[in-house]
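Whether sequence alone determines local backbone shape is best considered at the level of individual chains. In the encoding step, the backbone of a single protein was reduced to a row of integers, each denoting a local shape. For completeness, the protein is quoted in full, as a sequence line and a line of structure tokens.
***
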Amino acid sequence: MDLNLLTIANRASLGTDIQCSIGSAKNRIAQIKTLVNKFVSSGAFCADEINQEVEFSVIGIVSIFEQHLNDMLHHIYLAFPGKLGKKQFELSDLVNTGSLHELIYDKATQRVLDLAYGKFESFVAAFLNAFEISSQIDSELIADVNEIKCTRDCLIHNNGKANALYMSKAGVKARVNAKAGDLKVDMAYFEASVDFILMLIKEIENRIPQKYKESTKSYVFKQMWEATCLCRRVPFETVWEIVSPSELSLKVDSDETFGYSSSEMEVFNVFRYAFGGRREHKPDFALLFERWEPSSNEYQIAMSWLNNQFYF
């Protein structure tokens, strides 16, 4: 069984998910920077209030950044579960989740959490590997962002003072010489933090392969068709025309034109129903899953679409 084929329908929104996550992270961080500047320049707040606002804002931008990377990694693991590795699932895991689709979701979630709570360098390496990014990102930039994350942790858990964990994780980028030292978080540090984080987001964005950024409904619909028996009988271009990344045109809509068998017809109906959502084209999934073996591309693609339905 091809796990990547079993979740192929997830890829219909992958490109949009990637662009939305990048855009949202950039916009939210920029909004926080604007609000902090207004807060500081207003003259309505004392030094302690300004310091507190700056510290909260550092916490905020790091959280947005982490959510962005976690979401991106989760999206790619769901779209291509083969990237989770070759570790075998336990039968008890499948029993507990109730379906292979839910099991993949849980495994992807757990993998992201495991990486998020580990070393940031390891997370970045796993992220780049999952997105097939071979060009390295400046290690100094990664180390600078890592220190900001470590400072955020101390702001939350240690009253803004360095602890042993900070000294260990921040390494040569540690901003104090010993634990218990105050980690200064002023406007200069906040602005530098914004710059470093936005720079890393941009560096990653520029390296993501176009095949992932352009993974859209039309593109994935074509991939699904070409992986089934239908394409062996009729080329995609004979039946369909891609109008745009999110729009298709059905050129030939006939039950008899291509001489499909009843089993093939149910597979064809999966595509026709995804295209138009017309009741008369709704697949008989019970019949489809009875006729096709679970290991077949036809079974897996139908199951994938059923679990991740998209329409035109």
Q: What stands out?
A: The chain has 16 helices and two strands. The first strand starts at residue 240 and ends at 244. The mean pLDDT is 93.
